[in-house]
């Protein structure tokens, strides 16, 4: 299971993106980017962060450590911004934290070349989870200690917003023409040969087990959190075997 920490100090809001994450300090003395259950996108965004982040990690991609953060809603009452105060008040309990990579730089494709193999692995992974938020306008990639790190996977697995149509939605191809790494000749064929065999039922069971029950409870059409966990795993398992053939908009390295 994800490590559990307790928020001890709210430092500042991070005014990037629509969810208004915050920077906090926790009882393990770590500093984390906090994503709130009370944000407009709701708990499904946090579920997507966990599934995709932990799957990426197990496939050998670099993702900051994810933790669950117990937040006392009164922690940020000194924050002068009313929007932030409301977000804190509505997010008491279990939230998601991402290790803060101090000194990391936003990815710039003109400044940071990426080889075709690494680009291929990232594009293949984004196609697997249908990540629509890794464009050149908003790469959600960080350069830290000379390496690429993947962040922000809330806009993935769009099928979990409409479970009755999830199977059909998960069969759709992936348009990578706008992908932040499309210009690097991503070798998705090699990536599929390497990564697809790793995406097994056992691996996905391990990944989905990381999702806190509280974020899964009460989903219409599912009796238990484990039923919903299996629903998350099924499209990914089916998609992993064929998605490399359905990636459009890039020219692979030869």
Write the topology of this structure.
Elements: E1 3-13, E2 22-26, E3 31-35, H1 43-58, E4 66-71, H2 82-89, E5 93-99, E6 105-106, H3 116-129, E7 141-144, E8 147-150, H4 166-170, E9 174-175, H5 188-195, H6 201-208, H7 225-240, E10 247-248
Parallel strand pairs: 1-4, 9-10
Antiparallel strand pairs: 1-2, 2-3, 3-5, 4-5, 6-7, 7-8
Keywords: Kinase, Transferase
Organism: Streptomyces kebangsaanensis
InterPro entries: HipA_2, Kinase-like_dom_sf
Structural write-up:
Keywords: Kinase, Transferase. It holds the Pfam family HipA_2. It comes from Streptomyces kebangsaanensis. By secondary structure, the protein is an alpha+beta fold. The chain has two domains: 97 residues; 144 residues, no CATH class. Helices cover 30% and strands 19% of the residues. The chain is built from seven helices and ten strands. It has a five-stranded mixed β-barrel with strand order 1-2-3-5-4. The chain has a three-stranded antiparallel sheet with strand order 6-7-8, with no helix packed on it. Strands 9-10 form a two-stranded parallel sheet. A hairpin with an 8-residue loop joins strand 1 and strand 2. Helix 6 crosses helix 7. It is globular, with a radius of gyration of 18 Å. The termini are far apart.
């Amino acid at each position: 299971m994800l490590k559990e920490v307790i928020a001890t100090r709210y430092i500042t809001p991070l005014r990037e993106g629509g969810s208004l994450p915050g920077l906090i300090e926790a009882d393990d003395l770590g500093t984390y980017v906090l994503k709130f259950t009370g944000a407009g996108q709701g708990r499904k965004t946090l579920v997507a962060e966990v599934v995709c982040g932990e799957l990426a990690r197990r496939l050998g991609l670099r993702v900051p450590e994810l933790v669950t953060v117990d937040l006392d809603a009164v922690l940020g009452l000194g924050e002068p911004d009313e929007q932030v105060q409301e977000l804190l008040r509505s997010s008491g309990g279990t939230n998601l934290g991402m290790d803060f990579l101090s000194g990391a730089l936003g990815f710039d494709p003109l400044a940071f070349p990426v080889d075709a193999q690494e680009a291929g692995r990232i594009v293949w992974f984004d196609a697997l989870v249908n990540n629509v938020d890794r464009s050149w306008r908003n790469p959600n990639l960080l350069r830290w200690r000379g390496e690429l790190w993947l962040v922000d996977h809330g806009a993935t697995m769009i099928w979990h917003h409409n479970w009755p149509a999830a199977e059909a939605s998960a069969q759709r191809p992936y348009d990578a023409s706008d992908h932040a790494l499309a210009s690097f000749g991503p070798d998705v064929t090699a990536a599929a040969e390497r990564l697809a065999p790793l995406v097994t039922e056992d691996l996905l069971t391990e990944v989905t087990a990381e999702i806190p029950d509280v974020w899964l409870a009460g989903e219409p059409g599912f009796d238990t959190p484990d039923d919903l966990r299996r629903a998350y795993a099924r499209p990914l398992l089916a998609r992993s075997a064929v998605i490399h053939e359905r990636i459009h908009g890039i020219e692979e390295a030869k």
